[in-house]
Design goal:
Blueprint lengths: L4 E9 L2 E6 L2 E7 L1 H11 L4 E5 L11 H10 L4 E4 L5 H10 L3 E4 L1 H5 L2 H10 L4 E10 L2 E6 L4 E6 H11 L3 E6 L11 H10 L4 E4 L5 H9 L5 E4 L1 H4 L5 H10 L10
Parallel strand pairs: 1-4, 1-12, 4-5, 5-6, 6-7, 7-10, 10-11, 11-12
Antiparallel strand pairs: 1-2, 2-3, 7-8, 8-9
Helix pairs in contact: 1-2
Length: about 250
């Protein structure tokens, strides 16, 4: 079995890292470059940096921040927010990103995934899917979870993989920032259905939550923010705890 990945997420708004509950009530939790450097040193396997207001406000992701992060980390990192064209993706690649994450723009124009994958390869593109439950059905949302669409989680996940996405980053908008755990049954169903890695996002509040989504949820990686930003647990401590539970994990940097 491949080692599971631990991925801190930096939600960036107006140049600072923020965190809230269900993407509301956002609070400044630090400089993204400083946090990226710290998490890389602490043993994170990868990083995800999302400009959460780029699409909502019609702006592009700040390539300058990406360049600064690339200068201080030596682990892969994914950048998302406001990517609506192959040119946007290429700009971030040149700035130092290892992968790009597309969400709202791909829902609006699915061919974007085909185009980026064709130009740069499937390994470069992560399809981010934000979804909420409405009447027991997982509905894909856009614009930081504020706008429901007519797409359903499982059919949309299958389509983006067919179009060339190399990974799926699924965020449960109902769980995000709550610290109440991930919807593991949904993650397990996605992982069983898809041929690409699934990154779990939305709800991590404890070691047990992360252990559960990596085992019962069958996720290939766990993405978390609040537990790291607020110092509830360190990355090295988390990895040791997961390893002690028999979960294959890469050794944290000491």
């Amino acid at each position: 079995m491949l080692a599971k990945r631990i991925i801190p997420c930096l939600d960036i708004k107006d140049g600072v890292t923020v965190k809230g509950i269900n993407f509301t009530g956002l609070k400044d939790v630090g400089d993204p470059v400083e946090l990226a450097s710290r998490y890389a040193s602490d043993g994170a396997d990868e990083l995800v940096c999302l400009d959460i207001s780029a699409t909502l406000e019609g702006r592009k992701t700040f390539a300058a921040i990406v360049e600064r992060i690339a200068e201080v980390v030596d682990i892969p990192f994914t950048v998302g927010g406001g990517i609506a064209s192959v040119e946007d993706a290429g700009r971030l690649l040149l700035a130092g990103a290892d992968k790009v994450s597309v969400n709202s723009a791909a829902v609006r124009r699915p061919e974007l995934i085909d185009e980026i994958a064709s130009r740069y390869g499937s390994q470069f593109i992560v399809a981010a899917i934000d979804a909420r439950q409405y009447g027991g059905k997982w509905v894909v949302t856009t614009h930081s979870g504020t706008r429901p669409t007519d797409r359903e989680l499982f059919s949309w996940a299958r389509e983006v993989v067919d179009r060339g996405a190399g990974e799926i980053l699924f965020t449960s908008m109902d769980n995000d920032g709550t610290g109440k755990g991930y919807p593991c049954k949904t993650f397990a169903a996605l992982s069983e259905m898809l041929s690409v890695p699934v990154i779990a996002s939305g709800g991590a509040g404890s070691v047990e939550d992360i252990a559960e989504v990596l085992t019962a949820g069958q996720a290939d990686a766990a993405l978390a923010a609040s537990i790291f930003h607020y110092g509830r647990i360190g990355i090295g401590e988390l990895k040791s705890a997961l390893s002690s539970r028999g979960i294959p994990i890469r050794t944290a940097i000491s």
